[in-house]
Design brief:
7% strand, five-stranded antiparallel beta sheet, alpha+beta, elongated, 368 residues
């Protein structure tokens, strides 16, 4: 107990002398040891990195989870599952919830009615859009938000701790310099010089440690650069999927409208999007919706039409064909593409060896 009291008193004395030195420096009554210009630049760069990382992190969270209440709840839920060392369950997106409401409404209004069948079609696509949004949220959380948060909660705390320690060492150094100037007796000067040498050595050692940590900010920038590229890639995939789904939905709704306007037709029911969402092209005049599923694959018919020109294309994302008329794709592969007269401008005919089929334009980068 006696030892602890002495240690506490010693610590309080050191804190008091540092506070006095700091106050006198602010009032211009004491000299302050300036840091190395290179170290000062590193500190400025680190502070800027921390501030902008916080802003980018907060705004990205707002972008991915616009509702502040939902965002707070999501963070609390994430914290609890992290502490329990359990995997966070996937959250239902608002778009998926909208799709589910539409499907439930269709069942109540009657799935055989024009309104009910259209609700089913739109609801299914809303759920697909919500699934794409959930994939974006998961990819962004793992590949972008988590690394930024780890920097702020891990590396930056270590840097801040060492910087505070450096500031204390600097204050101790300036205190020793002030004592040496005030010393009058030779014995007091000798003691002050010894304390100054020790303080100078500790300050130099801490300055090197802090400098090494601050120079690691460059590696942090490279890591965040890769994470930013992954985030942009996830966004590109998400928007491409949304564009593709909405084009298919527009085609489905157009079929419904054409069927409704066809005289002497059977009761109108929109096609089931699960089985026919990816059938291409409008139906032939007078054809009923029920006959669409019995049409021959469009790719077989297109091979008999004149080709308007061929060129190479690079595949940007994986794509799985939804029926025999479409060609499945792998990211980064090269294929030959061309179009035919009267073909939907959002699609091209792709060829890979002996394989041929329709491919969506949004998944391709056309090469010269």
């Amino acid at each position: 107990m006696d030892f602890n009291v002495k240690k506490l008193a010693c610590g309080a004395g050191v804190f008091f002398t540092r506070a006095v030195q700091f106050t006198e420096e602010k009032l211009g009554q004491a000299e302050k040891t300036e840091l190395d210009p290179h170290l000062e630049n590193l500190i400025t760069r680190a502070d800027s990195t921390k501030n902008w990382t916080e802003k980018i992190l907060r705004q990205t969270e707002v972008l991915l989870q616009p509702n502040p209440i939902d965002h707070t709840g999501a963070r609390i839920e994430e914290f609890i599952y992290d502490k329990l060392d359990k995997k966070l369950p996937s959250r239902t997106t608002n778009t998926e919830l909208l799709g589910q409401y539409m499907l439930e409404a269709a069942n109540e209004f009657g799935p055989g009615t024009p309104y009910g069948s259209t609700l089913i079609t739109v609801g299914e696509y809303q759920k697909r859009l919500g699934g794409a949004e959930r994939d974006l949220l998961q990819a962004s959380a793992v590949g972008f938000l988590t690394p930024l948060r780890n920097f702020l909660e891990g590396d930056w705390r270590t840097i801040s701790k060492e910087r505070r320690l450096l500031e204390n060492r600097r204050l101790d150094l300036d205190i020793c310099k002030a004592r040496l100037k005030k010393a009058k007796l030779a014995e007091a000067k000798a003691a002050a010089e010894h304390e100054l040498r020790v303080a100078q050595a500790e300050f130099d050692r801490q300055a090197e440690v802090t400098k090494l940590l601050l120079e690691g900010i460059g590696s942090t920038h490279l890591n965040h650069l890769r994470c930013l590229q992954d985030f942009a890639e996830a966004q590109a995939t998400y928007y491409a999927q949304c564009h593709h789904h909405m084009q298919d939905l527009q085609r489905e709704l157009s079929r419904c409208a054409n069927s409704i306007s066809t005289p002497h037709s059977a009761p109108v029911v929109c096609p089931d999007p699960v089985s026919s969402a990816f059938l291409s092209g409008p139906p032939s005049p007078g054809a009923s919706v029920s006959s669409l599923s019995s049409q021959r694959p469009l790719a077989m018919e297109q091979t008999q039409l004149p080709v308007t020109g061929t060129r190479k294309a690079k595949v940007l994302y994986d794509y799985e064909g939804h029926d025999g008329s479409e060609l499945s794709l792998l990211a980064d592969e090269l294929i030959i593409v061309h179009t035919v007269p009267g073909m939907d401008p959002d699609w091209l005919i792709g060829e890979r060896g002996n394989q041929k089929g329709k491919v969506p334009v949004t998944y391709l980068e056309l090469l010269s």
